[in-house]
Amino acid sequence: MSLTHDAALSPSAGRRFRAYTAKHLDELTGRAGLDAHERLAVRAVATVLPFRVNSYVVDELIDWSAAPDDPIYRLTFPQPDMLPHADVARIADLLRADAPRKEVNQAANEVRARLNPHPAGQMALNIPKFGDDEPLSGVQHKYPETVLFFPKQGQTCHAYCTYCFRWAQFVGEPDLKMATDDIGALVGYLRRHPEVTSVLLTGGDPMIMGEGVLSRYVEPLLEVETLESIRVGTKALAYWPQRFVTDPDADETLRLFERVVASGKNLAFMAHFSHPNEMAPPLVQEAVRRIRGTGAVIRTQAPLIRTINDDSAVWETMWRAHVRHGMVPYYMFVERDTGPQDYFAVPLARAYEIFRGAYKNVSGLARTVRGPSMSATPGKVCVDGIAEVAGEKVFVLRLIQARDPDLVGRPFFAKYSESAAWLFDLEPALGATRFPYEAAPPDDPAELVGEA
C-alpha cells in the first residue's frame, strides 16, 4: 500500500483538530442567521441532547449561505423543534434566569428519561454474562454470530449527529453509558462462544482513538481463531478524514489495518454517510482510497432522516458516489424510537417509496443496499414492499437479522398505515393476532395466518 498523499487536498487538510461545543452555540447559530430567541431555544435543546462539531465540518461541509436549512447544518446542530415546546420553554426560562447548573441538569434529565435512551433492549436484553454470571460491561450480544464492543476511549465522536440513537453515550450520565477497557474479558468471552464470528467496535466512534490505543483493542482479537471479521462503526470518514490522511498517526493506523487483513480476517469499515455533500471534499475521497489500499472493505450506511436526506435523488446520488469510489452500499435504516424520533422520523410508507425511488435508478453494484430497515427489539426488520393480499393492503416485512435465527428471512405482513413510523406502530394483517417474533399467549394456540 502506498502511504503517499496530496498535501494540497483541502485548505483544512493539515490543521489540528478543533472541537466546538455548547459554549460556542451562540456564535455559530448567529452565523446561521438565528435571532436571540431562536439561539436560546437551540441552547435549551443542547442541555438535553449532546452537541459537538469540529472545524472541518464547520469550514468544509456546511454551506453557511444556506443555513439553517443546509443539510449538514441540520445534521449537526440542534433544532428547537426536536423536543416538545413546553420542555424547550421550561429550560430556556432557566437559562435566561441564569438558574443554578444543578437545576438545569435536573430539568434536562427529566426530559431525557422520557426519550427512551436505550431502545431495542440494549441494556435489558443484550448484555451477556461472563464468569460467575456477571454482566459483561461494555459488550452487547444480540445476534448469535455478532458481538458489539464499546471501547472506553472511543465513546465520543469527531462531531455528533442530531439524529444519533446512541445520544445517551454523550450526555455525561454514567448510568446511561456503555463502555469498557477490558479487552481480555472480551477475548475470554469469544473463546467460550465460538459461534461469534464477527466483532463490531462501536461507540461513540472507535476512530476517535489514536493508533496506539486502537491497537491495544484490535490486536488481541487477531489471536481468536473463530473470529472471521472485525468491523469498525465510524463517522470519521465524513467528519474528520484527516484521521486517515494527515493526522500524525494516520500512516500507523493504516498499517494496523494491514495487519488485520494479513491475519486472514476481514476488516470492514461500517462508514456512516448521511448525505452526498459529505463525499464532496477531495480529502475524504483520498481517505477512502487509502483505507481501501490496506485491503479493508468499506460498507456505507445511514438512517433516513426528515429534513436531511428524505428524498430519493439524495440516496441515488449518494449510493452512486459510494460505488464510484469503491465502497459498498449496505443499509438504509429507519430512525429508531429514541431521542427526537418524532422530529426526524419518516413514515414507513414514504420511507419505502424513497428507497424504491433510489434503488430502481442505480446499477446492480449499488443494489447491495438493504432497507428501509428497523433495528428493533426482535431484530432488523426490512420493509420489502407494499402489496394487496387477499383484498387487504399490507406491508410486506422480513427479518434480515433476528435474536431467533429461525426467523431470519421469513416474510410476514402488517396492516398498511400512512402514519406508522416504527415496528411497534404496526398491527398484524390478514387475521393474524400476533407477529412471528411475538410469543403466543398460553390460551391462544391460533395459527399465524399473517405469516407467509
Chain-wise SSE layout:
Elements: E1 19-20, H1 25-31, H2 36-48, E2 53-54, H3 55-61, H4 71-76, H5 85-96, H6 101-113, E3 129-130, E4 134-135, E5 139-143, E6 146-149, H7 183-192, E7 198-201, H8 211-218, E8 229-234, H9 236-239, H10 250-262, E9 266-272, H11 282-292, E10 297-304, H12 312-324, E11 328-334, H13 341-344, H14 348-359, E12 370-376, E13 379-389, E14 392-402, E15 411-415
Parallel strand pairs: 6-7, 7-8, 8-9, 9-10, 10-11, 11-12
Antiparallel strand pairs: 1-2, 3-4, 5-6, 12-13, 13-14, 14-15
Can you characterise this structure?
The protein is α/β, with parallel strands linked by helices and 452 residues long. The protein has 14 helices and 15 strands. It has helices at residues 25-31, 36-48, 55-61, 71-76, 85-96, 101-113, 183-192, 211-218, 236-239, 250-262, 282-292, 312-324, 341-344, 348-359; strands at 19-20, 53-54, 129-130, 134-135, 139-143, 146-149, 198-201, 229-234, 266-272, 297-304, 328-334, 370-376, 379-389, 392-402, 411-415. The strands form 3 sheets. Strands 5-6-7-8-9-10-11-12-13-14-15 form an 11-stranded mixed sheet. Helix 8 (211-218) links the parallel strand 7 (198-201) and strand 8. The longest helix has 13 residues, at 36-48. The chain is globular and about 60 Å long. It starts with 18 loop residues before the first strand and ends in a 37-residue tail after the last strand. The relative contact order is 0.09.
